[in-house]
Protein backbone atom coordinates (compact mmCIF):
# COMPACT_ATOMS: atom_id res chain seq x y z
CA UNK A 1 0.00 0.00 0.00
CA UNK A 2 1.24 3.46 -0.89
CA UNK A 3 -0.09 6.93 -0.21
CA UNK A 4 -0.63 9.75 -2.67
CA UNK A 5 -1.24 13.39 -1.87
CA UNK A 6 -4.66 14.79 -2.82
CA UNK A 7 -2.68 17.66 -4.41
CA UNK A 8 -0.45 15.45 -6.57
CA UNK A 9 -2.08 12.05 -7.20
CA UNK A 10 0.70 10.95 -9.57
CA UNK A 11 3.39 10.60 -6.86
CA UNK A 12 3.22 8.39 -3.78
CA UNK A 13 5.12 7.56 -0.58
CA UNK A 14 5.41 4.52 1.71
CA UNK A 15 3.19 3.83 4.72
CA UNK A 16 6.06 4.65 7.04
CA UNK A 17 6.60 8.04 5.40
CA UNK A 18 2.87 8.89 5.60
CA UNK A 19 2.81 7.78 9.24
CA UNK A 20 5.78 9.83 10.44
CA UNK A 21 5.23 12.89 8.22
CA UNK A 22 1.48 13.40 8.62
CA UNK A 23 1.30 15.94 5.83
CA UNK A 24 2.79 15.89 2.32
CA UNK A 25 5.05 18.87 1.52
CA UNK A 26 2.53 20.09 -1.09
CA UNK A 27 0.04 20.57 1.79
CA UNK A 28 -2.44 18.05 0.41
CA UNK A 29 -3.62 15.04 2.44
CA UNK A 30 -2.41 11.47 2.13
CA UNK A 31 -4.81 8.85 0.74
CA UNK A 32 -4.13 5.11 0.45
CA UNK A 33 -3.63 3.63 -3.01
CA UNK A 34 -4.86 1.30 -4.24
CA UNK A 35 -7.79 1.11 -1.86
CA UNK A 36 -8.58 -2.63 -1.81
CA UNK A 37 -12.09 -3.69 -2.94
CA UNK A 38 -12.97 -6.35 -0.40
CA UNK A 39 -16.55 -7.10 -1.28
CA UNK A 40 -19.55 -7.99 0.83
CA UNK A 41 -18.37 -11.60 1.48
CA UNK A 42 -15.20 -10.43 3.17
CA UNK A 43 -17.18 -8.15 5.46
CA UNK A 44 -19.83 -10.84 6.11
CA UNK A 45 -17.07 -13.19 7.22
CA UNK A 46 -15.36 -10.82 9.66
CA UNK A 47 -18.27 -8.67 10.82
CA UNK A 48 -19.25 -10.85 13.80
CA UNK A 49 -15.76 -10.81 15.28
CA UNK A 50 -14.05 -8.51 17.80
CA UNK A 51 -12.85 -5.02 16.95
CA UNK A 52 -9.24 -6.28 17.21
CA UNK A 53 -9.90 -9.22 14.83
CA UNK A 54 -11.64 -6.93 12.34
CA UNK A 55 -8.73 -4.49 12.59
CA UNK A 56 -6.31 -7.32 11.94
CA UNK A 57 -8.17 -8.62 8.87
CA UNK A 58 -8.48 -5.18 7.26
CA UNK A 59 -4.86 -4.29 8.14
CA UNK A 60 -3.73 -7.48 6.38
CA UNK A 61 -5.69 -6.47 3.29
CA UNK A 62 -4.07 -3.03 3.38
CA UNK A 63 -0.48 -3.90 4.25
CA UNK A 64 -0.17 -7.20 2.39
CA UNK A 65 3.34 -8.53 3.06
CA UNK A 66 4.80 -5.17 4.13
CA UNK A 67 4.30 -6.10 7.79
CA UNK A 68 4.23 -9.76 8.83
CA UNK A 69 0.92 -11.30 9.91
CA UNK A 70 2.30 -12.01 13.37
CA UNK A 71 3.33 -8.37 13.86
CA UNK A 72 0.02 -7.06 12.50
CA UNK A 73 -1.94 -9.37 14.75
CA UNK A 74 0.05 -8.30 17.78
CA UNK A 75 -0.28 -4.61 17.08
CA UNK A 76 -4.02 -4.66 16.39
CA UNK A 77 -4.73 -6.71 19.51
CA UNK A 78 -2.55 -4.40 21.56
CA UNK A 79 -4.36 -1.35 20.13
CA UNK A 80 -7.91 -2.62 20.73
CA UNK A 81 -8.41 -4.33 24.09
CA UNK A 82 -11.97 -2.88 24.19
CA UNK A 83 -15.16 -3.31 22.16
CA UNK A 84 -17.42 -0.84 20.34
CA UNK A 85 -20.91 -2.21 21.06
CA UNK A 86 -24.17 -1.13 19.41
CA UNK A 87 -26.83 -0.39 22.04
CA UNK A 88 -30.40 -0.55 20.71
CA UNK A 89 -32.63 2.45 21.31
CA UNK A 90 -35.52 1.26 19.11
CA UNK A 91 -35.29 -2.49 18.56
CA UNK A 92 -34.69 -3.36 14.91
CA UNK A 93 -34.72 0.31 13.91
CA UNK A 94 -32.15 2.42 15.68
CA UNK A 95 -29.10 2.03 17.86
CA UNK A 96 -26.04 3.89 19.10
CA UNK A 97 -22.51 2.70 18.41
CA UNK A 98 -20.66 3.37 21.68
CA UNK A 99 -17.12 4.42 20.84
CA UNK A 100 -16.16 5.49 24.36
CA UNK A 101 -15.03 2.25 25.98
CA UNK A 102 -11.33 3.01 25.49
CA UNK A 103 -9.00 4.60 28.08
CA UNK A 104 -9.82 8.28 27.39
CA UNK A 105 -13.57 7.67 26.91
CA UNK A 106 -13.80 9.14 23.41
CA UNK A 107 -13.64 7.62 19.92
CA UNK A 108 -10.26 9.28 19.36
CA UNK A 109 -8.71 6.39 21.33
CA UNK A 110 -9.23 4.12 18.32
CA UNK A 111 -7.15 6.24 15.95
CA UNK A 112 -4.53 7.26 18.51
CA UNK A 113 -3.92 3.70 19.75
CA UNK A 114 -3.55 2.19 16.26
CA UNK A 115 -1.20 4.98 15.25
CA UNK A 116 0.85 4.51 18.43
CA UNK A 117 1.09 0.75 17.86
CA UNK A 118 2.30 1.27 14.29
CA UNK A 119 4.86 3.89 15.34
CA UNK A 120 6.10 1.56 18.02
CA UNK A 121 6.50 -1.19 15.40
CA UNK A 122 8.51 1.04 13.04
CA UNK A 123 10.52 2.63 15.89
CA UNK A 124 11.93 -0.78 16.82
CA UNK A 125 13.78 -0.70 13.49
CA UNK A 126 15.64 2.52 14.34
CA UNK A 127 17.39 3.78 17.44
CA UNK A 128 16.50 7.43 16.93
CA UNK A 129 13.89 8.66 19.39
CA UNK A 130 10.74 10.13 17.81
CA UNK A 131 9.30 13.29 19.35
CA UNK A 132 5.58 13.71 18.87
CA UNK A 133 4.16 17.20 19.21
CA UNK A 134 0.43 17.72 19.51
CA UNK A 135 -1.76 20.73 20.27
CA UNK A 136 -5.12 19.93 21.85
CA UNK A 137 -8.34 21.70 22.72
CA UNK A 138 -9.49 18.71 24.80
CA UNK A 139 -10.20 15.18 23.59
CA UNK A 140 -7.27 14.64 21.22
CA UNK A 141 -4.65 15.24 23.90
CA UNK A 142 -6.06 12.61 26.27
CA UNK A 143 -6.33 9.95 23.59
CA UNK A 144 -2.81 10.66 22.30
CA UNK A 145 -1.28 10.84 25.80
CA UNK A 146 -2.80 7.52 26.83
CA UNK A 147 -2.23 5.89 23.44
CA UNK A 148 1.49 6.72 23.38
CA UNK A 149 2.21 6.34 27.12
CA UNK A 150 5.16 3.96 27.60
CA UNK A 151 5.58 3.33 23.87
CA UNK A 152 9.34 2.68 23.54
CA UNK A 153 11.32 5.06 21.35
CA UNK A 154 8.58 7.71 21.40
CA UNK A 155 8.32 10.90 23.47
CA UNK A 156 5.14 12.97 23.49
CA UNK A 157 4.78 16.70 24.13
CA UNK A 158 1.23 17.97 24.47
CA UNK A 159 0.40 21.67 24.34
CA UNK A 160 -2.89 22.79 25.80
CA UNK A 161 -4.43 26.19 26.56
CA UNK A 162 -4.24 26.94 30.28
CA UNK A 163 -7.67 27.15 31.94
CA UNK A 164 -9.55 26.22 28.76
CA UNK A 165 -9.88 22.45 29.05
CA UNK A 166 -12.14 20.69 31.55
CA UNK A 167 -10.60 19.52 34.83
CA UNK A 168 -10.82 15.84 33.95
CA UNK A 169 -9.49 16.45 30.45
CA UNK A 170 -6.51 18.26 31.99
CA UNK A 171 -5.86 15.37 34.36
CA UNK A 172 -5.73 13.00 31.39
CA UNK A 173 -2.90 15.08 29.93
CA UNK A 174 -0.90 15.93 33.01
CA UNK A 175 -0.83 12.92 35.31
CA UNK A 176 0.76 10.13 33.26
CA UNK A 177 4.42 11.12 33.51
CA UNK A 178 7.05 8.93 31.86
CA UNK A 179 7.36 9.72 28.17
CA UNK A 180 4.38 12.13 28.17
CA UNK A 181 5.05 15.80 28.96
CA UNK A 182 2.30 18.42 29.12
CA UNK A 183 2.99 22.07 28.27
CA UNK A 184 0.40 24.41 29.74
CA UNK A 185 0.33 27.45 27.51
CA UNK A 186 -0.89 30.89 28.59
CA UNK A 187 -2.95 31.40 25.47
CA UNK A 188 -5.62 29.86 23.24
CA UNK A 189 -5.77 26.59 21.32
CA UNK A 190 -4.79 28.55 18.21
CA UNK A 191 -1.63 29.76 19.99
CA UNK A 192 -0.76 26.13 20.86
CA UNK A 193 -1.29 25.10 17.27
CA UNK A 194 0.83 28.00 15.99
CA UNK A 195 3.72 26.94 18.26
CA UNK A 196 3.53 23.35 16.98
CA UNK A 197 3.48 24.54 13.37
CA UNK A 198 6.51 26.73 13.97
CA UNK A 199 8.41 23.82 15.52
CA UNK A 200 7.92 21.79 12.34
CA UNK A 201 9.52 24.50 10.18
CA UNK A 202 12.38 25.29 12.61
CA UNK A 203 15.38 23.83 10.77
CA UNK A 204 17.65 24.03 13.78
CA UNK A 205 15.21 22.13 16.00
CA UNK A 206 14.57 19.55 13.27
CA UNK A 207 18.30 18.93 12.94
CA UNK A 208 18.44 17.99 16.63
CA UNK A 209 15.17 16.11 17.09
CA UNK A 210 13.13 13.78 14.94
CA UNK A 211 9.71 15.47 15.09
CA UNK A 212 6.38 13.93 14.22
CA UNK A 213 2.74 14.88 14.66
CA UNK A 214 -0.28 12.98 15.95
CA UNK A 215 -2.93 15.36 14.72
CA UNK A 216 -6.12 14.20 13.10
CA UNK A 217 -4.98 14.69 9.53
CA UNK A 218 -2.64 11.70 9.91
CA UNK A 219 -4.12 8.99 7.69
CA UNK A 220 -3.26 6.35 10.28
CA UNK A 221 -5.61 7.89 12.79
CA UNK A 222 -8.37 7.69 10.21
CA UNK A 223 -7.94 4.19 8.74
CA UNK A 224 -8.67 2.33 12.04
CA UNK A 225 -11.85 4.35 12.53
CA UNK A 226 -13.25 2.36 9.63
CA UNK A 227 -12.97 -0.82 11.72
CA UNK A 228 -15.83 0.10 14.05
CA UNK A 229 -18.25 0.73 11.18
CA UNK A 230 -17.59 -2.91 10.25
CA UNK A 231 -18.00 -4.00 13.88
CA UNK A 232 -21.36 -2.15 13.99
CA UNK A 233 -22.46 -3.70 10.70
CA UNK A 234 -21.77 -7.10 12.27
CA UNK A 235 -24.15 -6.27 15.10
CA UNK A 236 -27.09 -5.04 13.00
CA UNK A 237 -26.85 -7.06 9.76
CA UNK A 238 -29.24 -9.77 11.04
CA UNK A 239 -32.03 -7.20 10.58
CA UNK A 240 -31.46 -7.71 6.84
CA UNK A 241 -32.15 -4.07 6.13
CA UNK A 242 -30.01 -1.34 4.59
CA UNK A 243 -27.72 0.27 7.18
CA UNK A 244 -27.49 4.06 7.64
CA UNK A 245 -24.81 5.65 9.85
CA UNK A 246 -25.10 9.05 11.48
CA UNK A 247 -21.80 10.70 12.43
CA UNK A 248 -21.59 13.79 14.63
CA UNK A 249 -18.88 15.73 12.84
CA UNK A 250 -16.32 18.52 13.26
CA UNK A 251 -13.15 17.89 11.31
CA UNK A 252 -14.90 15.11 9.34
CA UNK A 253 -12.26 12.43 10.02
CA UNK A 254 -14.86 10.06 11.43
CA UNK A 255 -17.17 10.41 8.42
CA UNK A 256 -14.23 10.10 5.97
CA UNK A 257 -13.27 6.83 7.67
CA UNK A 258 -16.82 5.55 7.09
CA UNK A 259 -16.75 6.63 3.46
CA UNK A 260 -13.42 4.84 3.06
CA UNK A 261 -14.75 1.45 4.26
CA UNK A 262 -17.88 1.99 2.18
CA UNK A 263 -15.56 2.41 -0.80
CA UNK A 264 -13.76 -0.79 0.21
CA UNK A 265 -17.08 -2.63 -0.07
CA UNK A 266 -18.85 -2.42 3.29
CA UNK A 267 -22.56 -2.17 2.41
CA UNK A 268 -23.42 1.22 3.91
CA UNK A 269 -26.61 2.57 2.34
CA UNK A 270 -26.25 6.20 3.44
CA UNK A 271 -24.55 8.61 5.86
CA UNK A 272 -25.98 11.41 7.94
CA UNK A 273 -23.49 14.24 8.60
CA UNK A 274 -24.72 15.95 11.76
CA UNK A 275 -23.08 19.16 13.00
CA UNK A 276 -23.54 22.04 15.40
CA UNK A 277 -23.68 25.63 14.09
CA UNK A 278 -20.36 25.02 12.35
CA UNK A 279 -22.50 23.85 9.46
CA UNK A 280 -20.33 24.27 6.36
CA UNK A 281 -20.78 20.68 5.17
CA UNK A 282 -24.60 20.56 5.61
CA UNK A 283 -24.70 23.91 3.74
CA UNK A 284 -22.52 22.45 0.98
CA UNK A 285 -24.89 19.48 0.65
CA UNK A 286 -27.84 21.85 0.40
CA UNK A 287 -26.32 24.37 -2.03
CA UNK A 288 -23.29 22.79 -3.71
CA UNK A 289 -21.18 25.68 -2.41
CA UNK A 290 -18.38 24.96 0.02
CA UNK A 291 -17.26 28.01 1.98
CA UNK A 292 -15.15 27.41 5.10
CA UNK A 293 -15.61 29.87 7.95
CA UNK A 294 -13.91 30.67 11.25
CA UNK A 295 -15.22 28.42 14.00
CA UNK A 296 -18.13 29.28 16.31
CA UNK A 297 -17.99 28.21 19.99
CA UNK A 298 -20.78 25.79 21.00
CA UNK A 299 -21.57 23.34 23.83
CA UNK A 300 -20.49 20.47 21.56
CA UNK A 301 -17.00 21.97 21.50
CA UNK A 302 -15.14 18.98 20.06
CA UNK A 303 -17.02 19.74 16.82
CA UNK A 304 -16.26 23.47 16.70
CA UNK A 305 -14.49 23.41 13.37
CA UNK A 306 -15.31 25.99 10.72
CA UNK A 307 -12.87 24.72 8.12
CA UNK A 308 -12.87 20.91 8.37
CA UNK A 309 -9.52 19.57 7.21
CA UNK A 310 -10.95 16.23 6.06
CA UNK A 311 -13.53 17.73 3.68
CA UNK A 312 -10.97 17.32 0.90
CA UNK A 313 -10.70 13.61 1.68
CA UNK A 314 -14.44 13.09 1.75
CA UNK A 315 -14.88 14.87 -1.57
CA UNK A 316 -11.98 12.87 -3.00
CA UNK A 317 -13.61 9.57 -1.91
CA UNK A 318 -16.73 10.56 -3.85
CA UNK A 319 -14.68 11.37 -6.95
CA UNK A 320 -14.91 15.15 -6.31
CA UNK A 321 -18.43 14.82 -7.69
CA UNK A 322 -21.13 16.82 -5.88
CA UNK A 323 -24.00 14.61 -7.09
CA UNK A 324 -22.29 11.46 -5.90
CA UNK A 325 -21.43 13.09 -2.56
CA UNK A 326 -25.04 14.20 -2.10
CA UNK A 327 -26.41 10.78 -3.07
CA UNK A 328 -24.43 9.26 -0.19
CA UNK A 329 -24.57 11.89 2.55
CA UNK A 330 -27.38 14.01 4.05
CA UNK A 331 -26.59 16.95 6.32
CA UNK A 332 -28.36 18.29 9.43
CA UNK A 333 -27.25 20.89 11.95
CA UNK A 334 -28.40 22.07 15.39
CA UNK A 335 -27.83 25.10 17.61
CA UNK A 336 -27.12 24.82 21.35
CA UNK A 337 -30.76 25.13 22.46
CA UNK A 338 -31.78 22.40 20.04
CA UNK A 339 -28.90 20.26 21.28
CA UNK A 340 -29.98 20.65 24.92
CA UNK A 341 -33.59 19.86 23.95
CA UNK A 342 -32.34 16.82 22.02
CA UNK A 343 -30.37 15.53 25.02
CA UNK A 344 -33.55 15.80 27.12
CA UNK A 345 -35.76 14.17 24.48
CA UNK A 346 -33.35 11.24 24.07
CA UNK A 347 -33.22 10.76 27.82
CA UNK A 348 -37.02 10.99 28.20
CA UNK A 349 -37.75 8.66 25.29
CA UNK A 350 -35.01 6.05 25.71
CA UNK A 351 -33.56 6.63 29.22
CA UNK A 352 -30.22 7.04 27.46
CA UNK A 353 -27.75 9.69 28.61
CA UNK A 354 -25.67 11.34 25.88
CA UNK A 355 -22.91 13.91 25.59
CA UNK A 356 -23.92 16.90 23.39
CA UNK A 357 -22.01 15.55 20.36
CA UNK A 358 -23.74 12.18 20.48
CA UNK A 359 -27.14 13.88 20.88
CA UNK A 360 -26.53 15.76 17.62
CA UNK A 361 -25.80 12.47 15.83
CA UNK A 362 -28.99 10.87 17.13
CA UNK A 363 -31.07 13.94 16.23
CA UNK A 364 -29.67 13.89 12.70
CA UNK A 365 -30.62 10.23 12.37
CA UNK A 366 -34.15 10.88 13.69
CA UNK A 367 -34.57 13.75 11.23
CA UNK A 368 -33.41 11.59 8.30
CA UNK A 369 -35.75 8.77 9.40
CA UNK A 370 -38.70 11.16 9.46
CA UNK A 371 -37.82 12.54 6.05
CA UNK A 372 -37.30 9.29 4.15
CA UNK A 373 -39.99 6.70 3.96
CA UNK A 374 -37.63 3.79 3.33
CA UNK A 375 -37.05 1.00 5.83
CA UNK A 376 -33.53 0.82 7.22
CA UNK A 377 -31.63 0.30 10.43
CA UNK A 378 -29.97 3.47 11.70
CA UNK A 379 -26.79 3.57 13.77
CA UNK A 380 -25.70 6.83 15.42
CA UNK A 381 -22.08 7.08 16.55
CA UNK A 382 -21.69 7.91 20.27
CA UNK A 383 -18.38 9.78 20.19
CA UNK A 384 -17.72 10.46 23.89
CA UNK A 385 -18.92 9.26 27.28
CA UNK A 386 -21.33 11.78 28.85
CA UNK A 387 -19.19 12.04 32.02
CA UNK A 388 -16.47 13.82 30.03
CA UNK A 389 -18.94 16.72 29.90
CA UNK A 390 -20.36 16.11 33.37
CA UNK A 391 -21.28 19.69 34.47
CA UNK A 392 -23.14 20.38 31.21
CA UNK A 393 -24.94 17.03 31.08
CA UNK A 394 -25.99 17.26 34.74
CA UNK A 395 -27.27 20.77 34.19
CA UNK A 396 -29.28 19.82 31.08
CA UNK A 397 -30.75 16.57 32.42
CA UNK A 398 -31.00 17.73 36.01
CA UNK A 399 -29.64 14.45 37.34
CA UNK A 400 -26.25 13.15 38.48
CA UNK A 401 -24.03 11.50 35.90
CA UNK A 402 -21.86 8.52 36.83
CA UNK A 403 -18.15 8.82 36.17
CA UNK A 404 -16.47 5.53 35.17
CA UNK A 405 -13.70 4.36 37.50
CA UNK A 406 -10.88 4.99 35.00
CA UNK A 407 -11.81 8.66 34.73
CA UNK A 408 -12.81 9.14 38.38
CA UNK A 409 -9.43 7.98 39.74
CA UNK A 410 -7.69 10.81 37.89
CA UNK A 411 -9.38 13.43 40.08
CA UNK A 412 -6.99 12.68 42.97
CA UNK A 413 -3.80 12.59 40.92
CA UNK A 414 -1.41 15.52 40.94
CA UNK A 415 -1.14 17.62 37.83
CA UNK A 416 2.35 17.99 36.38
CA UNK A 417 2.85 20.49 33.61
CA UNK A 418 5.41 22.96 32.37
CA UNK A 419 3.73 26.34 32.39
CA UNK A 420 4.92 28.57 29.55
CA UNK A 421 3.92 31.85 27.91
CA UNK A 422 2.48 31.59 24.39
CA UNK A 423 5.89 32.17 22.82
CA UNK A 424 7.64 29.79 20.48
CA UNK A 425 11.11 30.42 21.96
CA UNK A 426 9.91 29.52 25.47
CA UNK A 427 8.47 26.26 24.21
CA UNK A 428 11.61 25.39 22.27
CA UNK A 429 13.84 26.04 25.25
CA UNK A 430 11.82 23.88 27.63
CA UNK A 431 11.35 21.14 25.05
CA UNK A 432 15.10 20.86 24.54
CA UNK A 433 15.58 20.72 28.30
CA UNK A 434 13.06 17.91 28.76
CA UNK A 435 14.49 15.71 26.02
CA UNK A 436 18.17 16.19 26.81
C1 LIG B 1 -13.31 14.90 17.78
C2 LIG B 1 -14.72 14.71 18.19
C3 LIG B 1 -15.80 14.80 17.26
C4 LIG B 1 -15.58 15.21 15.82
O1 LIG B 1 -14.98 14.19 15.05
P1 LIG B 1 -14.37 14.53 13.61
O2 LIG B 1 -13.69 13.30 13.16
O3 LIG B 1 -13.41 15.67 13.83
O4 LIG B 1 -15.49 14.92 12.72
C5 LIG B 1 -17.08 14.54 17.69
N1 LIG B 1 -17.33 14.22 18.98
C6 LIG B 1 -16.34 14.13 19.92
C7 LIG B 1 -16.71 13.80 21.31
C8 LIG B 1 -15.02 14.37 19.55
O5 LIG B 1 -14.04 14.29 20.48
From TrEMBL:
Domain Tryptophan synthase beta chain-like PALP, first and last residues per copy: 97-375
InterPro entries cross-referenced by the UniProt entry: Ser/Thr_deHydtase_PyrdxlP-BS, Thr_synth_N, Thr_synth_N_sf, Thr_synthase-like, Threonine_Synthase, TrpB-like_PALP, TrpB-like_PALP_sf
Keyword annotations: Amino-acid biosynthesis, Lyase, Pyridoxal phosphate, Threonine biosynthesis
Modification sites for N6-(pyridoxal phosphate)lysine: 108
Cofactor(s) essential for the protein: pyridoxal 5'-phosphate
GO biological process, one term: threonine biosynthetic process
Limits of the Threonine synthase N-terminal domain: 2-80
ATP-binding recorded as keyword: no
SUPFAM superfamilies: Tryptophan synthase beta subunit-like PLP-dependent enzymes
E.C. designation(s): 4.2.3.1
Pfam families: PALP, Thr_synth_N
Enzymatic class: lyase
Pathway annotation: Amino-acid biosynthesis; L-threonine biosynthesis; L-threonine from L-aspartate: step 5/5
Reaction it catalyzes: O-phospho-L-homoserine + H2O = L-threonine + phosphate
Family statement: Belongs to the threonine synthase family.
Designated name of the protein: Threonine synthase
Organism whose genome encodes this protein: Spirosoma endophyticum
Amino acid sequence: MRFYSTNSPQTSVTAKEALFHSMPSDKGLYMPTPLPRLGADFFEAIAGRSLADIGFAISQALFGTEISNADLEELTHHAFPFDTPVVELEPGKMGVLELFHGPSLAFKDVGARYMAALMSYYSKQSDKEVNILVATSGDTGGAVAMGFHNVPGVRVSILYPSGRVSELQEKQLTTLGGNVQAFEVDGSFDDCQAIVKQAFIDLELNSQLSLSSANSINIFRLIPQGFYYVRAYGQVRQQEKPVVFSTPSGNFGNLSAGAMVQQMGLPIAHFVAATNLNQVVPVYLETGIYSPKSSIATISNAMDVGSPSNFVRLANLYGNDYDRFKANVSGYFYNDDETRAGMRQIYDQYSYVTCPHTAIGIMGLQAYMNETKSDFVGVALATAHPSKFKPLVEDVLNKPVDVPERLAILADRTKQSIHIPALYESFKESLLQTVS
